[in-house]
Amino acid sequence: MSQPHRVIRQLVVETLYEAETSDHPAREVLERRLTEAQAETPELAEAKQRRRAARMLEGVLEAREKADLLIAEAAPKHPVDAMAIVDRNILRLAIWELLSGPSVSVAAVVNEAVELARRYSGEKAPAFVNGVLRTVSAQIETARATQPGS
């Protein structure tokens, strides 16, 4: 039995990729992928897991512009729109997770993103994803530390 949260991340990345490379609506793609994945990960049938997946997808879609700006700042030699689609979406997902709150473990988010890059992308992608996310996470930490009331 696999970990539902890890499988949800994979499904969200697959959904983002499919939605970006076709005219398929992201929410419908996610529903289909969740249903298909239930055979291997029965927990995905639970309402709680489906809500988690939907919240993750919606969060990434809503934070896309901000994530793309952070990626562009962290990797100025790699234009976001010229990046491999899967790499760009792995980064967007991880950045959304990092932006979601200070309770999120930076190490866990980076490790999961690197694993996604290993699974879905080229051999240089894991190091690239790691470098971009380390830079972005430092920027996020600095921004949080300088906010009033922190």
How many β strands by DSSP?
Answer: 0
Q: Termini distance?
A: 40 Å
Low-confidence stretches: none
Global outline: globular
Question: How would you explain this protein's 3D organization?
Answer:
Helices cover 73% and strands 0% of the residues. By secondary structure, it is mainly α. The chain folds into two domains: 1-61, no CATH class; 63-150, NusB-like (N-utilizing Substance Protein B Homolog, Chain A, Orthogonal Bundle), CATH 1.10.940. α1 packs across α3 (47-62), α4 (64-74) packs across α5 and α4 crosses α7. The longest helix is centred in the last third of the chain and has 22 residues, at 125-146. The protein starts with a helix and ends with a helix. The model has no long low-confidence stretch (mean pLDDT 94).
In short:
With 150 residues, this protein is an all-alpha fold. It has 2 domains: 1-61, no CATH class; 63-150, Orthogonal Bundle (N-utilizing Substance Protein B Homolog, Chain A). The chain has 7 helices and no strands.
